[in-house]
Amino acid sequence: MAKAKAKTVFFCKECGYETPKWMGQCPGCHQWNTMTEEKINPVSRGAGKRGNNLPHQQLTGLFEVSMEEEDRSSSGIPELDRVLGGGIVKGSLTLVGGDPGIGKSTLLLQICRYQANSGKKVVYVSGEESLKQIKMRAQRLGGFKENVFLLCETDINAAAEAVREAKPDMVVVDSVQTMYFSHFVGSDAQQFDAFTRKQIETFEKASMLLQEAFPYKILRHICNSAGIERFPGAQFDMVRLGIGLYGISPIDNSIMHNVSTLKTTILQIRDVPEEDTVGYSRKGHLTRPSRIAAIPIGYADGLNRHLGNGHAYCLVNGQRAPYVGNICMDVCMIDVTDIDCKEGDSVEIFGDHLPITVLSDVLGTIPYEVLTSVSTRVKRVYYQD
Known about the structure:
Elements: E1 7-12, E2 18-19, E3 35-40, E4 72-73, H1 78-83, E5 88-89, H2 104-117, E6 122-126, H3 131-141, E7 148-152, H4 156-166, E8 170-174, H5 193-212, H6 225-230, E9 262-265, E10 268-272, E11 277-278, E12 284-285, E13 290-295, E14 313-316, E15 319-324, E16 332-335, E17 346-350, H7 356-363, H8 367-373
Parallel strand pairs: 6-7, 6-8
Antiparallel strand pairs: 1-2, 1-3, 4-5, 9-17, 10-13, 11-12, 13-16, 14-15, 14-17, 15-16
């Protein structure tokens, strides 16, 4: 069988954009003379995918496998030692999981106590508690001596640097999900492009170091919705589609394609004389005899109270119906005086004909906040093309 030839690709050293041919200007970041050539050895047909830097494994005879005992140390908790096969293995990584509040942090601190009291240097990194909170828990447990060092940090790079300087025998990270690995903070704005490219560069270097420590491919992702659009060369293995999933541009919050509609129906219609008021605190003042409709949606459903008192409107049979008075918890009132409608007719809060940006602009926020404010008690209906 002929040996597959190495593939030549070009990477932008600024943003990571990949292309099979050289270009003077990078299509991803629009910088000039940033493309560098690299050779990639293809994976043989039928073989599993492997990282380029991963060693190939060799066949080993059963009786050639070394049975040397690992360097283990007790956790101080016999049942945990049994689960770990005899104790904590030097150079190993152990993930402790469980329901919130089950006592994972207390368990880890007990392990730290035993290890430190055995003469080992322990670093305890917390992304959830303050130094005082950790010390209070340690005082409740009691029996601590020296050699336990605390660090409150959520930046994984800063934590790693502190650990490298301390050179401890054991590190506890509580908890992994609080550690900040990478997330774009300015990929939607051109003035932050240099910072975003630095993030990409730092992430790529760190992830490659991490990859070298594992025998299998680690999936990498850093792009949010804006990054997907503006930094295509940094899409790596996966992307984190957020606001773009709802058809809203992460660049300017414009509607690219509406995919969600919030609607309700008219519950009641009443004729209200001009001298009357509508709603709590009598905030809804009428200027004429009016037809007022009640619709069964309120701030407990996610309809913001700041939209009331005529600040915004919904659509009834395609016509604008302003909110009258304060929006209540479970219901609100709208003015349908000039609209031909009846009880049971559909009301669009936002959707194809009333963009969600109309509401977010009134509230001085982003569409994402309006979308995520819709409470769980609102029935969801999903359509699939």
